[in-house]
Amino acid sequence: MRLADPGQARDLSTLISRARSLDEGAAVRLQAVGSVLAVWVPVMSGETLLEQVPTVLGLRAVHLSEPSRADATVQAAAVLDRLARVDRAGAPLALPPITVRAPWSGAIPGTSGWRECGTVPAQRLENLARQGSRAVEQALPAQPGAAVLSTVRSRIWGTVEEPGGFVAGAAFGAMALGFLGGGDFAVHAQGPWRRLSNRAGHLLARPAASL
Hints:
Elements: H1 8-22, E1 27-44, E2 55-75, H2 76-89, E3 115-120, H3 122-139, H4 146-157, E4 160-161, E5 166-167, H5 169-176, E6 185-190, E7 193-198, E8 201-206
Antiparallel strand pairs: 1-2, 2-8, 3-6, 4-5, 6-7, 7-8
Helix pairs in contact: 1-2, 3-4, 3-5
């Protein structure tokens, strides 16, 4: 796959590096359809039904110079290595040969059926993200176990916000991935999913699965 603008490799590297700062072993899903490459990164998700954490994903779409078709979930570190070559030499972006399993990557929503819910200011998302981060920090003991961490994150980041009923974890995603500088966010809904979009990218979020 060849990016229409090789300079986009640097932007994608920044996005994926931000996702790795949340989880060093993060996976990335790459979907190429025609002349568009969609890059999905995780912000938070429950690995099992017992882990009641909202799912929050980041998405950025970039143009390809020629039509391509691909769909693979791979290690973020491997994609960063290949993006570095694109940035240095304008080389094509090659898919890493080894795919990985990431539960969130098999549950992403489709592109149709979204309804408009309104707009949320970027400043409000920043406030929600900072308030939530402080609340998580204050609620956790010195050495929390996985169950305690999951419970606290679910309670705080699973809080429903308006317009459209998006989970507060989407605000954390907007800050963590550097999307707040892209202006206010349009909110759309499709079933349990909410999509928050601005010039910097998209956040896809849904509540934790019900037991």
